Amino acid sequence: MRRRVLLAGIAGGSAAVAAAGLWRAWDGPEPVRPPAPAGVERLERVWSAARGREVDFYTAVPHGHGDGHGLPVCLVLHGGAKRPPDFAALGLGGFLTDAVRRGTPPFVLAGATGDRLAWRPSAADDPQRMAAEEIPAWCAARGFDPARLAAWGWSMGGFGALLLAEARPGLLRAVAAFSPAVTPGDAVFGGITRLGDTPVGLWCGTGDPLHPNVRALHDALPTPPMAGGYGAGRHHFGYWSTILAPAFAFVGATLHASPTA
After folding, report:
1. Which terminal residue of the chain, N or C, has fewer Cβ atoms less than 10 Å from its own Cβ?
2. How far apart are CA 78 and CA 55, in angstroms?
3. Where is 129: in which H helix or E strand?
4. DSSP labels for 240-258?
5. Going from the N-terminus, what domains does the chain have, and what CATH number goes with each?
6. What span, in angstroms and rounded, lies between the C-alpha atoms of 145 and 136?
């Protein structure tokens, strides 16, 4: 069916120094927030058996869609410097409402704390399993429809979203990756054929240190990206905020499309 790092690709030495520099890049310009209200946003503490600890769990429903009952879900996989408690301040709820007002079919955002593990298992701590199994279950318990699931992530989270699609073929209807922290030869490149025909959206600023790696990923994908682009910008939410509207439009369209054989 057509449903279908930062730390991972940065394993040591000078690459680790590059990772630290990318985390500091959050000191860039403020997000360009749209004049749209957030709908229902919640931040809760929930127990994650996959991670063996309590985590912050954020959800956002577009304004005008009540509690989001029955809406599909887009997982939010954070990067190295921001966490779910920061999502409301970044304006994610307003960005979601703005996208829907522009004609994007509505969906819910849902994200939990994965820390700096690049969304991969580390001993008994498995944020990837949390994303694949527990977050959908938490969403179902709140009335959302995780049978229709996509993932969006930036930097380390973009790496994690792509890796999740590779590790769990058929789980995600789409992946939107902003400046994913990939490196040729890393786990994402190693499993790239498992993306199959999963719709992928790929964005990166041309001034981002990761831009050459992201273009290499673009060229290596088994199916060309269905959305994305490479405009002027660097590795921070000031740039990423300017591409949220087309990214959310891509996510919403794929979540509401009928899967085809």
Report:
1. C
2. 13
3. helix 127-129
4. HGGGHHHHHHHHHHHHHSP
5. 14-256 (3.40.50.1820)
6. 8
Say what the pTM is.
0.89
Q: How far is residue 241 CA from its own chain's centroid?
A: 13
Q: What residues pair up with 46 in beta bridges, in sequence order? A: 55
Number of H helices, E strands in the chain: 10, 8
Q: Which residues pair with 59 in a beta bridge?
A: 42, 110
Q: What is the pLDDT of residues 144-177, one digit of tens each?
A: 999 999 999 999 999 999 999 999 999 999 999 9
Name residue, tokens 């309590």: 54
- What are the residues facing 150 on neighbouring strands? 74
8 Å CB contact between 163 and 151: no
Position of tokens 């921070």?
236
Summarised one tens digit per residue, pLDDT across range 66-78 is 999 999 999 999 9
CA–CA distance from 85 to each of 45, 99, 113, 119, 171 (Å)? 10, 22, 9, 18, 26
Q: Exposed, middle or buried, 133 (CB in 10 Å: 0-12/13-18/19+)?
A: middle
Beta strands at 72-77 and 145-154: parallel, antiparallel or unpaired: parallel
Yes or no: say if 246 and 227 are a contact pair by the CB < 8 Å rule: yes
CA atoms within 13 A on the CB side of 61: 17
d(CA 177, CA 190): 17
CA distance 49 to 229: 37
CA angle 203, 209, 213 (to 5 degrees): 60
The Cα–Cα gap between 100 and 107 comes to: 9
Residue whose structure tokens are 């509690």: 67
